[in-house]
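Open question from group meeting: does this chain pack into something compact, or does most of it stay loose? Before anyone orders reagents, we agreed to write out a predicted structure and look at it together. Recording both the input and the output here so the notebook holds the full record.
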Amino acid sequence: MKNPVLGLLSFLLDKILFFVKPKANCISVADTNGNMYETSLFKRGDLLEVPRTLFVHFGIYLGNNRVAHLIPDILPVLTCKKAYVEKVVTNKRLVAGVLAKIASVRVDNVQDFAYGAIILVNSMDQHVKNNPLSNEEVAQRAEKLVGTTSYSLLWDNCEHFVTYCRYGTAVSLQTDKVNI
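Structure tokens returned:
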């Protein structure tokens, strides 16, 4: 017999995702302008930003085409199968993670992290009062936090993760604008 709660959750996710227009090429080696990502411009410990529909997504560059980023994701608590969890997070997984308040700090390649968007590097440095820590310390902090964690869109999101890693304090300039 089908679980009615899971059926309702699936129904709600389908209705929410009806309004979300996912990109046809979710794994791309080029940005929205057709340019290849030039990872040689990134330094280990750089704070990377990619614009999304409603928010900006953040990550920490670890070197060798790898980015650590916090992303809502329900799958790590539902399965131990690494092959499933390592796949690119789909919109359904993301929405379910937001609703369940579960996320993971994961390491993806630059292309999967950017999801076809342009990448800004360290542009938050001009807006945060604290000076950045050394790039190596930033990267090491990010690597230590890899794994499943709690999530809150307003109080514990990807921006809080990167500002903690880079500046030693967890803040979100995006959500500060919302929290009046």
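Observations to bring back to the group:
Residues 17-33 have pLDDT under 50 and may be disordered.
DSSP finds eight helices and six strands in the chain.
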